[in-house]
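We store chain and fold; example below:
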Amino acid sequence: MKINNCDSLDCFFKETRNKIDPISIPLQKETIEFKFELYKNLLNLKYDLNFNLNKEQFSALNKYVKEKPFKVVECDKNIGIGLISHENYNKLAIDHLNKPEFYLKIANDPLNDVKEFINNVLRELCYRKDISKSLLKKLLIDNGQLGNFRVLT
């Protein structure tokens, strides 16, 4: 290995990736005894397999997880949760987003300008050799997304 010749983390990770053999790492006797005791205790554990859901409730929960026929939303004023159909949720969201007293309508998407600015700064840092090309590839923004929107009912 040429670890001593590495001057960056990228080089170090590249040189050490998949080169360490776990068998060659020395283990102390206490470590081996601890592993043995741990496995022995895990075998002796008794699990209580009584579930708090019956089969019908469990299948209904599985059906919801797979199909998601409605949306579970937070209620305003910390009252709890509410159930709402996807169509009604989308209608409420669009109605709320179109209210001019809450949101200002903008002509263009500022996210594109911000992405371009960040990418230009990153390219400049790479050009000045402040960051490596591999780090640049990891940090460049390809398709940024805005945060999530949610409606409180």
